[in-house]
């Protein structure tokens, strides 16, 4: 149904979170907030990639997508709110996500499957 990819500079996200502490709660769920900066950057990239996979419809919130650890530590997406509505309307039945960070950069690749 759709694919999305996003790249985040870890230090830039860190600076934004330091500059605007309330931003952390607008972007990340409670469980995500406890993670390292590198993990937050990959999750932010995943949230942006979800929006791209859905065609960037209006009304999406970063909290509508959460990366959780699945079986054996594999990352999985939990989609709620407006993102879940749009995904349902598009016929998305399954999500795939891949995360990585190295050299100060974080990347996420998302596939929305019907």
Automatic annotation (TrEMBL):
Entry keyword set: Cytoplasm, Fatty acid biosynthesis, Fatty acid metabolism, Lipid biosynthesis, Lipid metabolism, Magnesium, Metal-binding, Transferase
4'-phosphopantetheinyl transferase domain boundaries: 2-87
Matching Pfam families: ACPS (PF01648)
Localization of this protein: Cytoplasm
Catalysis: reaction(s): apo-[ACP] + CoA = holo-[ACP] + adenosine 3',5'-bisphosphate + H(+)
Enzyme class: transferase
EC number: 2.7.8.7
Entry annotated with the keyword Transferase: yes
Cofactor(s) required, per the database record: Mg(2+)
Binding residues annotated for Mg(2+), in chain numbering: 6, 48
Transferase among keywords: yes
Reported function: Transfers the 4'-phosphopantetheine moiety from coenzyme A to a Ser of acyl-carrier-protein.
Sequence similarity: Belongs to the P-Pant transferase superfamily. AcpS family.
Protein name (record): Holo-[acyl-carrier-protein] synthase
